[in-house]
Amino acid sequence: MPDLAQLRAQAQARADKRRGRKRLAGGLGALAVAALLWQDPAYRTETWTTARGEQQRLSLRDGSALMLDSGSEIRVSWHLRSRRAQLRQGRAFFDVAKAVYRPFAVQAGSAQVDVVGTAFDIGRMGEDVSVRLYRGAVDVSLPVETPANVRTYRLEPGMAIDVASGKILRRQGLAEGIPDWAQGQLVFERQTLAQALVAIRRYRPETIVLEDPSLAELRVSGVFQIARLDQLFDLLPQIWPVQVRRDGDAIHIGKAGG
C-alpha cells in the first residue's frame, strides 16, 4: 500500500503534466494569434461602382469619407492590422479617419498610396495614375524603370504626382481644400475647348464631336454643375460663333452656319 509521500508525489506529477499541457496549448494559441496578425487577412470586403455621369458619396465603417467620381470602381477591404482600397478605374476622393495602428493604403495600378489620416484624391485611367494631396501627408510608392525598383515620394498639401506613359511628373503650389469635382462642379479657367471636352466626356453618356478642329483652341471659363452640364452646350452659341446640334446619342459642335 503506497504511503502518503508517494501519493503526494503522484498527485504532483499529474498536476505538473496538466500544467505542461496548458502551457503548450497557450503557447500554440499565442503562435496562432501571432500568425494571424502577421498574415493580416481581410475579414470584410466591399465594392462600389458608378456609371458614367454618376457620383456617389460613401461613409466607410471606420469613419472615413469617400467620394467616387463618374465611371469608377473601387474595392475596400478591412483587415486586422490595416485598411486597404484598390481603385480599379476612375477617380476617388478620400478623407481618411486617423488610426495609427491600422494604416490606410490605396492601390491604383502600379502606384500605392500609404496614409494615416489625410485628404487626397487619386485617379486612374489604365496604367496612368494621378495623386493629389489636400491635407496631411501621404507616401506614394512607384516602380522606377523596373517593377522591382520601387521609389517612395512624400507629398505635402498642394502637391501632386502624375504617372503617364511610364513617366513620373511632380507638381506643387496647387490649391488646397476639396477638389471641384468632389463638390459636384467643373471649373474652367481659360482652358481650351478641347481640354474642357475631355473633362465633360467623363460625365456625359453621349458621344461629343468637335466637327471643326479650329474650334479646339477657343477658351472656356466658368463654373458648371456636373448634374447640369447641358447648360454649357446651351451657352456655347451665345458666346462664340458655333452651333450645337443633338443627333440621337451624339452632340455635334461646329461653326455657325457650317
> Tell me about the biggest sheet?
13 strands, mixed
Distance between the termini: 120 Å
Query: Strand pairing plus helix content: what structural class?
Result: alpha+beta
Number of domains: 3
Backbone shape: elongated
Low-pLDDT runs of 5+ residues are: 28-38
What is the secondary structure topology, with strand pairs?
Elements: H1 4-39, E1 42-49, E2 56-59, E3 65-68, E4 73-79, E5 83-95, E6 104-108, E7 111-115, E8 119-125, E9 128-135, E10 138-144, E11 146-155, E12 160-164, E13 167-171, E14 185-192, H2 193-201, E15 207-210, E16 219-225, H3 230-239, E17 242-247, E18 250-255
Parallel strand pairs: 5-6, 15-18
Antiparallel strand pairs: 1-4, 2-3, 3-5, 4-5, 5-8, 6-7, 7-10, 8-9, 9-12, 10-11, 12-13, 14-16, 17-18
Verbal overview:
There is one protein chain. The protein is α+β, with helices and mostly antiparallel strands and 258 residues long. The chain has three domains: 1-39; 42-171, Jelly Rolls; 184-255, Phage tail protein beta-alpha-beta fold. Helix content is 21%, strand content 46%. It contains three helices and 18 strands. It has helices spanning 4-39, 193-201, 230-239, and strands spanning 42-49, 56-59, 65-68, 73-79, 83-95, 104-108, 111-115, 119-125, 128-135, 138-144, 146-155, 160-164, 167-171, 185-192, 207-210, 219-225, 242-247, 250-255. Strands 1, 2, 3, 4, 5, 6, 7, 8, 9, 10, 11, 12 and 13 form a 13-stranded mixed sheet that branches. A three-stranded mixed sheet has the order 15-18-17, covered by helices on one side. Strand 2 and strand 3 form a beta hairpin. The chain is elongated and about 115 Å long. The protein starts with a helix and ends with a strand. 21% of the residues are buried.
